Amino acid sequence: MMSFDQLAELAGKMAPMFVMINADGQIERVGPTLQKLRPDQDWTGQPFIEIFDLRRPRSIRNMADLLGSSGVKLHMQFRDEPHTGLKGVLAPLPKGRGAFVNLSFGISVLDAVRDYDLTSADFSATDLTIEMLYLVEAKSAAMEASRQLNLRLQGAKIAAEEQAFTDTLTGLKNRRAMNHILGRMISTGRDFSLMQLDLDFFKAVNDTMGHAAGDAVLQKVASIMVDCTRNVDTIARVGGDEFVLIIDGLVDHAQLDNIASRLIKRLEEPIPFGGQMCQISASIGTVLSPASVSIDAAQLLNEADMALYAAKRAGRACHYFYEPGMDSEDTDEAVEEVSVDTASSQADTSRSSGNTAADAEQRSNG
Amino acid sequence: MHGLINRAIQAFVCSTYGESRWRDVTDSAELGFSEFEAMLIYTDDQSKKLLAAMEQVLQRPLPEMLEDMGTFLVSNPQVEALRRLLRFGGVNYVEFLHSLDDLPDRARLAVSDLYLPPLELIETAPGQFKLFCQDGLPGYASVMMGVLRAMADDYGDLVILEHSGHQDGAEVISVTLVETDFAEGRAFDLGAHLL
């Protein structure tokens, strides 16, 4: 039969965190790594449960319970600081000579390695702890590289969105794309006309029926505008409910007025959403392509805007062409815009030279 | 080739020759970009162009630069993580050498799609080794040469390293251990980077 000393020497190599206890539950020997955790501790003769606080299983309350716990996974921690958590398993020694307890760090190994300055020599050669530490570091480094990649991709996505030419809600072109196309058309000297279209009563839909309804309306509006124009024309959403249409190769007043009227008429058809009807309309200001390239895009847009305001002042659902006199008119009457809006049903139709056929009944419905 | 390898080349060139020289290299390689992502995969053709452009733009023999890169990967504080992972291989240089057999598998444990060709260490006499670097990654043996040299410094051992030609589809590096504990070496603390 092997002596305690022989067993201890053997176990030191295979299980350097062992504890041997005698039949009274007092510690007889400890392994070298366990010794390293408490270098100044005098282990011999100390009751096991006074050094280790047994957390689980809870049924173990005294030494007799412990000695009877053969094969059960034990969870414990040091009673003094640092309270490193330990896992263990106990096997009784033959002839009632006590028990052999093998301990390991379990998941607390990461803290233990740091707290006790452990090296590979402190672990048995077959122990997977070093491999686990290696994996933890390798995976953390790989994870960090992935995280950095994600951050960069996120940044690239935001940058791409900023540079995009498409309005994500409606699928129409956005202001950036419109500026780009408009600049090109002016510089090549092509004939075209530019319509600035503003939805009427859209804010009311948004406010009373919610943003989801507003979004649905904008999508329907976009599809109507695509229907009413040709592939060569450009349609852009340049603001919340503001659109710009660039009609390629067309500068004929009658035809343009026709397009505008058709647009307004179609936009005034109630749009169903969630069992309710959304009623909107539109005002349009149109400007024809400049005779000289000295007129820039900003100026052209400004002129279309003034025509649009004239149309709004005339009482919604109107279409106006830009006329040179509008510049001064605009500064005089811009302040009245709000009050004119509320009194749209009494609009002065005599001023709407390029008015559409939209009738007053529809306007008051909005 | 894995982004980690391309990224390592980028880190080495940027740190040694500067970022503008790196852009010269990527421009010359006509990659269309100058930043490699560590966690993406690039075609072998892209890496091949990159290495060719390095040799041309930086005007140095490629094996020499790749060996420097191996040293850089271990000794530069910027890439400390790799040095630590290699140090997990063993408590001394000889143990580390023997752990190289497992290196490709260890690499795959950390990053599953990172392929490194097999390495095999043969002890020909006490203190004499031959490291067989299998084909599959251009310049692999040159980089390993630099890594072995820098790791010897890291452990504080004095070694002689030599290219010993090609044998059975592998490039062979002979390692002669002249003196262990020749110098202080660098400290390695298992828990230094945890948390």
Structure overview:
- The complex is a heterodimer of chains A (366) and B (195).
- In chain A, a hairpin with a 6-residue loop joins strand 5 (85-92) and strand 6.
- In chain A, strands 2-1-6-5-4-3 form a six-stranded antiparallel β-sheet. In chain A, strands 8-9-7-12-13 form a five-stranded mixed β-sheet, with helices on both faces.
- Chain A starts with a helix and ends with a helix.
- Chain A is of the alpha+beta class and 366 residues long.
- The relative contact order of chain A is 0.08.
- Chain A has helices spanning 4-14, 32-37, 48-51, 63-67, 109-116, 129-162, 175-188, 202-209, 211-227, 253-267, 297-313, 326-333, 337-342, 360-365; strands at 18-21, 27-30, 52-56, 73-78, 85-92, 99-104, 192-200, 234-237, 242-248, 271-273, 276-278, 281-288, 319-321.
- Chain A has two domains: 4-127, Beta-Lactamase (2-Layer Sandwich), CATH 3.30.450; 175-365, Reverse transcriptase/Diguanylate cyclase domain (Alpha-Beta Plaits).
- In chain A, helix 8 packs antiparallel against helix 9 (211-227).
- Mean pLDDT of chain A is 85; it is low at 330-366.
- Chain B has 195 residues and is α+β, with helices and mostly antiparallel strands.
- Chain B folds into two domains: 3-60; 91-179, H-NOX domain, CATH 3.90.1520.10.
- Chain B is 48% helix and 17% strand.
- Chain B has eight helices and four strands.
- Chain B has helices at 3-17, 19-28, 44-58, 62-75, 80-87, 93-99, 103-110, 140-155, and strands at 119-125, 128-134, 158-167, 170-179.
- Chain B has a four-stranded antiparallel β-sheet, with helices on one face.
- In chain B, a hairpin with a 2-residue loop joins strand 1 and strand 2 (128-134).
- The longest helix of chain B has 16 residues, at 140-155.
- Chain B starts with a helix and ends in a 16-residue tail after the last strand.
- The model of chain B has no long low-confidence stretch (mean pLDDT 90).
- The chains are: A alpha+beta (366), B alpha+beta (195).
- The interface between A and B is medium-sized, with 26 and 22 residues.
